[in-house]
From TrEMBL:
This is Galactonate dehydratase. It comes from the Bacteria. The keyword RNA-binding does not apply. Its EC number is 4.2.1.6. Keywords: Lyase. It comes from Thermocatellispora tengchongensis.
Length: 381
């Protein structure tokens, strides 16, 4: 079997899919994307595809090595995400070739279902309770929300009270038996993050995410040492090497993204590294169906797994959503807040190729907003 063609498709709301075709007719799909920089990843996939054409797709690990290290310069979001999508597609091909789900090729399942959480906005506290009640009604046992909208450089008593009020609304709406997680999105400085984590601790969050932006990882230990609240991050880390300092700094929940951190191959290794720190995995995935399918495959066969993010109805999605490009929604039909295991070959997702090709004819150009403080200076989004 040889790889004959690699194509990419820009599909709304903000995704990039890749399709790897072999000479036997077996096709694999992947989702190589950096949100807001999809065109750049598309170019990177095009360059990496030069090597793959004519190669045996079943040599997944060797290709990962060449694509990641063979160009001398390595790492970072663009290259690691390009490799990630191609890696997903190669695992998809391998599963279809051997007639096995990817989790079956990775040692077999260790669980029958995967707990997932739903997003609620959180930027507007007024709508929060209703949004949470909707997700509880839909059966979810956990939600994630932003702690706030834009955060100022310092928190007034009123600012902090507004963050605490959101956490209290969430706890009240969920009751004591369900969970909420809070995403700080790297919006807070280290000092503010410490204030916020301490203030919402009584509401018992499942975890607090990205209390520091990735360039301040060397200060993560100050936050983890000061609170019993589990601290999570990882969507902006791209390899085992990137995760190591976070783990040694007391990271409690590792959140690699299957479409950013080198794909299934590298996230499996990140999980194994995290396991040596007694840290579970909660893969980041505000993305499309292929990224989620790849995440679920890893979740089914990874012992140290906690919970899976998924993007159905997420505020980013707008007009296009998780199920718009799949022929069979069953893998994403969550029951009681869980995804049930699929034993279909490969990633277990049936991509609607016609819908994907149609969407790519008017490609999106999604960009994150640029936020500014009251004084006109750049604020973290
Ligand atoms: Mg996040």
């Amino acid at each position: 079997m040889k790889i004959e063609r690699v194509e990419t498709f820009m599909v709304p709301p903000r995704w990039l899919f890749c399709r790897v075709e072999t000479d036997t007719g077996v096709v694999g799909w992947g989702e190589p994307v950096v949100e807001g920089r999809a065109e750049v990843v598309r170019a990177a996939v095009g360059v990496l595809a030069e090597y793959l054409i004519g190669q045996d797709p079943l040599r997944v690990e060797d290709h990962w090595q060449v694509l990641t290290k063979g160009g001398f310069y390595r790492g970072g979001p663009v290259l690691s995400s390009a490799v990630a999508g191609l890696d997903q597609a190669l695992w998809d091909i391998a599963g279809k070739h051997y007639g096995a789900p990817v989790h079956g090729l990775l040692g077999g399942p260790v669980r029958d279902r995967v707990r997932v959480y739903a997003w609620v906005g959180g930027d507007e506290p007024g709508e929060l309770r209703e949004a949470i009640e909707e997700q509880v009604e839909a059966g979810f046992t956990a939600i994630k929300m932003n702690a706030s909208g834009m955060l100022p450089r310092s928190l007034s008593a009123a600012d902090l009270a507004a963050v605490v009020a959101r956490a209290e609304i969430a706890r009240d709406a969920l009751g004591p038996g369900r969970d909420f997680a809070v995403d700080l999105h790297g919006r807070a400085s280290v000092a503010l993050a410490r204030q916020i984590v301490a203030a919402i601790e009584p509401a018992h969050p499942l975890f607090v995410e990205e209390p520091v932006a990735p360039e301040y990882l060397h200060r993560l230990g100050e936050i983890t040492a000061g609170t019993p609240v589990p601290i999570a991050l990882g969507e902006r880390l791209y390899s085992r090497t990137d995760f190591l300092p976070a783990l040694t700094a007391g990271l409690a929940v590792a959140q690699p993204d299957l479409s950013h951190a080198g794909g299934i191959s590298e996230v499996r290794r990140i999980a194994a590294l995290a396991e040596t720190f007694d840290v579970p995995l909660a893969p980041h995935c505000p993305l499309g169906p292929i990224a989620l399918a790849a995440s679920l495959q890893v979740a089914f066969c990874t012992p140290n797994f906690l919970i899976q993010e998924q993007s159905a109805g997420i505020h980013y999605n707008g007009d296009a959503d998780l199920l718009d490009y799949v022929l069979d929604p069953a893998p994403f039909d969550f029951v009681d807040g869980y995804a049930r295991r699929t034993d279909a070959p490969g990633l277990g997702v049936r991509v609607d190729e016609a819908a994907v090709r149609r969407a790519d004819r008017s490609p999106h150009a999604w960009r994150n907003p640029v936020w500014r403080h009251d004084d006109g200076s750049l604020a973290e989004w």
